[in-house]
Amino acid sequence: MVVKLFGASFSGHTLRVAMVMQEYNVPFELIKVDMVQGEHQSDAYLNNHPFGQVPYIDDDGFILYESRAISWYIATKYRDNIKAPLLPDMYKDTKKYAIFEQAASVNECHWERYTTKMVRQLLIEPMFDNEPDERVVEESLQCLNNTFDVYDRILSRQKYLAGDVSTIKVGAEIDSVANGAFQDFTLVDIFHLHTFHVFSSKALISTEGRPNVERYDFSSA
Amino acid sequence: MVVKLFGASFSGHTLRVAMVMQEYNVPFELIKVDMVQGEHQSDAYLNNHPFGQVPYIDDDGFILYESRAISWYIATKYRDNIKAPLLPDMYKDTKKYAIFEQAASVNECHWERYTTKMVRQLLIEPMFDNEPDERVVEESLQCLNNTFDVYDRILSRQKYLAGDVSTIKVGAEIDSVANGAFQDFTLVDIFHLHTFHVFSSKALISTEGRPNVERYDFSSA
């Protein structure tokens, strides 16, 4: 039975889970939730996702929401499907796992917190015929620019956001992480992909003057 | 060598780490960071915590920031110090760990995201002689009230936020989680403690009409 992914094609969090399942070669079926019609606020939906958001998964009866938790679950359950694990082993390499959790927390608190707001204003509100709140967009952009400055500092010392300095692999080709070329590439890097591209392609955030983020931005690889 | 905890006594995130270390019987030394004097923005500090926040730890030369990542690290490294682990085993019980990660993500996205803003406005800004932004306080309160409604629904089905329905232990005394009485009590529950108390004691958020959150609020236990 394939994993059922309840989500929306415009949702970065749905895309995040889809990307992780693709990396781990997990067959899944996308079941679209009609958010414009308010399906995510129905009692039936709230019974599976009490916050009324997307996505959630149904893995043979096991219901799970929150895109990062789903990614952990896929990376743990299907860890043998992939050559280079995207999640360090918590017990065998406690420090490496701690660094990974540090980067995951940074992703959530210094990146997603603001991109979520921007996506809401620039994408979701217009779907409901509402005007974007320019103040929120402006404040979020400022925070994201601050984060980019710190990312540039972090990436000046290591190749990936949760990467270990001592195992830098310069010049590796971007193709798929599953082939094992990226020893320090983790779920955290995947967590950034769907929004890095959107914001840089729309020129909302510039990598100019941030050479290490520019290198990290896979569109230039 | 005891773990050095660089933080501030008014910081909930510092308190969170201190509580986890106490639960795991890990000796630590609190080294106060003088944030009013801007110590957290000095080059020396940013070298250890690039975002210029508190807390971070120095465990015999291993530097780690982000309070949740530090909690993971303590719970993993010192897992034998405690009878009832606060972190489920990722590989032995993949689904339980996934539920834990789900609750940790909810804590970050639906709770901390707003409490952090309120603490900033009500506690930090006045330290720098700035007026709190009432609009931010009001918006955050509204979001926290929504979260409380969902928490009440979640807690109507299970005892703790990452708890398993099938192992509910009703009427257990709150004393210390380390004694093993709380099989479903996890780091996620500790993550809420420092702010649940602050906000309910200041009557900023009411548990009225939310009987399951009321039960969860340890001050009434």
From TrEMBL, chains A, B:
Gene Ontology MF, one:
glutathione transferase activity
Cellular component terms, GO, for this chain's entry?
A: cytoplasm
Q: Which residues form the GST N-terminal domain?
A: 1-82
Enzyme class, one word?
Answer: transferase
Q: Which Gene3D superfamilies match?
A: 1.20.1050.10, Glutaredoxin (3.40.30.10)
SUPFAM superfamilies per record: GST C-terminal domain-like, Thioredoxin-like
GO-annotated biological processes: glutathione metabolic process
The alphabetized UniProt keywords are: Transferase
**What's one Pfam family the UniProt record gives for this protein?**
GST_N
EC no. given is 2.5.1.18
UniProt key word Secreted? no
Q: Which PANTHER family match?
A: GLUTATHIONE S-TRANSFERASE RHO
Q: What is this protein called?
A: glutathione transferase
